[in-house]
Design a protein that fits this description.
This protein starts with a helix and ends in a 12-residue tail after the last helix. The radius of gyration is 16 Å and the shape is globular. The C terminus is likely disordered. The protein has one domain. With 177 residues, the protein is mainly α. α2 packs antiparallel against α3.
Length: 177
């Protein structure tokens, strides 16, 4: 378990820089090439990585920071994403021992399953807030192709984030196997 300040802050800054670059691509470059309503949710991928690969008591704070940073580029509120991310990480903590990133295919599958869970939890929160299912259905049709793209890119990003966070492929952050 990592509790040292330097073991969390410097990788977090690198992760936020990566998120910044990805958000710029999603919000500025995609609309320039004609993809107006296509927003790949890289913040979800980062939160999933944090939940799946990091074992730290500061996980909720890290999720809040990632979601707050994502809110600079989105009209979505950071608070709903933070609550959803924490709920997902609680689920991850229960099934963590059964999850193995033994291949790219498993990484893609696990990422897709947790993204669907993310959408389900987010939909419940939106329904509680709006009381209308129309927005949820509209968001769902846009979310499915974006989640498939994120799932397909997840092995590459998990490899990169493993290097940033200095996570061994075989263990959790802090586990030296």
């Amino acid at each position: 378990m990592k509790t040292n300040f330097k073991d969390i802050v410097f990788p977090l800054i690198k992760t936020l820089i990566l998120l910044f670059v990805l958000e710029i691509i999603t919000t500025a470059i995609f609309p320039m090439i004609g993809l107006l309503n296509f927003r790949v949710p890289f913040n979800i991928l980062l939160v999933l990585f944090l939940g799946l690969r990091l074992e730290t008591p500061y996980l909720a704070i890290l999720i809040m920071i990632v979601q707050y940073f994502h809110a600079f580029f989105s009209v979505e509120g950071w608070e709903m994403g933070t609550v959803t991310g924490i709920v997902i990480c609680v689920v991850v903590s229960y099934v963590r021992e059964m999850i193995h990133f033994s291949s790219w295919g498993m990484t893609i599958l696990i990422t897709q399953v947790f993204q669907l869970l993310w959408f389900f939890v987010q939909s419940i929160l939106i329904y509680i807030q709006l009381g209308n299912l129309d927005y949820i259905f509209d968001k769902g049709w846009r979310f499915l192709p974006q989640s498939v793209i994120i799932a397909l890119l997840s092995p590459l990003f998990f490899f990169l984030l493993n290097k940033i966070w200095n996570v061994d492929d075989r263990g959790m952050l802090g586990d030296k196997i």
